[in-house]
Amino acid sequence: MDCSACGALNPEGKRFCADCGMALALLCPVCASLNAPGKKFCGECGSALPGSKPQPTAHATPATPAGARPSAPDAERRQLTVMFCDLVGSTALSARLDPEDLQQLIRRYHDAVAAAVAPYAGHIAQFLGDGVLVYFGYPKAHEDDAARAVRAGLSILKTLETQRFHGDTQLQTRIGIATGRVVIGEIGTGTPAAEQSASGETPNLAARLQGQAKPGEIVLSDDTRKLLGEAFALESLGALDLKGFATPTQAWRVLGERRVATRFEAHHMQGLVEFIGRDSEVALLLDRWALARDGEGQVVLLSGEAGIGKSRICQTLRERLAGESVATVLLQCSPYFSSSALYPIMQHLERTAGIEAADSPEVRAGKLEQLAGTLPAASLGCLLRLM
Questions:
Q1: d(CA 21, CA 185)
Q2: d(CA 231, CA 257)
């Protein structure tokens, strides 16, 4: 089994990589979810995992007339965010490396990309030579598929920066992301090349935007940008003339992820409409705050369906208390870091200390030490490792 972190080959049955110590996992070829070693089927979508044997079905399949192709499953129309990644300098690599070495390098590149998009529920649609086509919003849709695609792209760039391939070779990639309506259905039905594919303008736009990106950059369509709110720092590239498109297309370059306390803040930094209703809920929170201020500690659980207004109520409470001398600590979990129990705390410390993603380890240590004050050196080192 190949390690998704370092690419090392490990004997079957092992649970951890002998080279880097990372937990080994089987990557689902359909939904890109990670599964524990030894499993036969994906726990997310039920597809057969690599190395598992197909299971016989209990029902008979109607015979297909000779010379006729089976009918294709019904196609579906849906909104999709498409990412296209292309390896930089693959032609030069093919001239420099032996074909077997080149094949191994591209396989490791594909594995690195697949492992980077897996936490964000990216679906690997195709490995196109040295390129990778990824869908966000299929087979399972999420309300933040556009943001997931951008975070996955940033993760790919970071992964390639830290890994070396075939000795000391560092790889770079260009990434294009576009969002729009597509039709997803099977093409090549009844042939060995049959696969699920998205048809429409969006995949072509993602490929064209990838061609406009420089090595190590991500370029977005305007429709993708509108779905991101203020979660990312972007730079306008203006209207680009793209091959195959009749009119110039607005594009954006991703500079990085903004430091925001909550997803609500990221999507509403430009202002909110007037808050109407919820008077009893806000009054209850203010009443509990009055008790806490008088020394009687309180805990309030605010629950409800997604989108019903929980975050807005909390924001309104903060606004009502703006005139008081209170310090507010905001901690929010993330579906992308479900395996990191201390992620909300680490994010809060980084925001409070003013730590940026581009800061060197020395700079990060200095900022955290300034924030922590008299914290023991051992505790400071533990926090730095968690970050």
A1: 40
A2: 6
Residues 6+ apart with CB under 8 A from 27: 4, 33, 34, 35, 50, 111, 114, 115, 118
Q: How many angstroms separate the CA atoms of 58 and 25, rounded?
A: 30
All residues at 6 or more sequence positions from 271 whose CB lies less than 8 Å from its CB, including other chains:
none
Instruction: Look up residue 19 and give its two tokens.
Output: 């080279």
What one-letter code names the amino acid at 319? E
User: Would you give the DSSP letter of residue 183?
Assistant: E
Q: Closest by alpha carbon to 181, among 197, 195, 199, 196?
A: 199
Q: List, for residues 164-196, the tens digit of each pLDDT value.
A: 887 778 899 999 999 999 998 876 665 555 567
pTM above 0.90, yes or no: no
Q: What is the pLDDT of residues 252-269, one digit of tens each?
A: 999 988 776 566 666 655
Tokens of 57: 């079905």
**Two tokens at 277?**
């209703």
Q: Judge whether 195 and 126 are in contact, CB under 8 Å.
A: yes
User: Hey, CA dihedral for 302, 308, 312, 317, is it positive or negative?
Assistant: negative
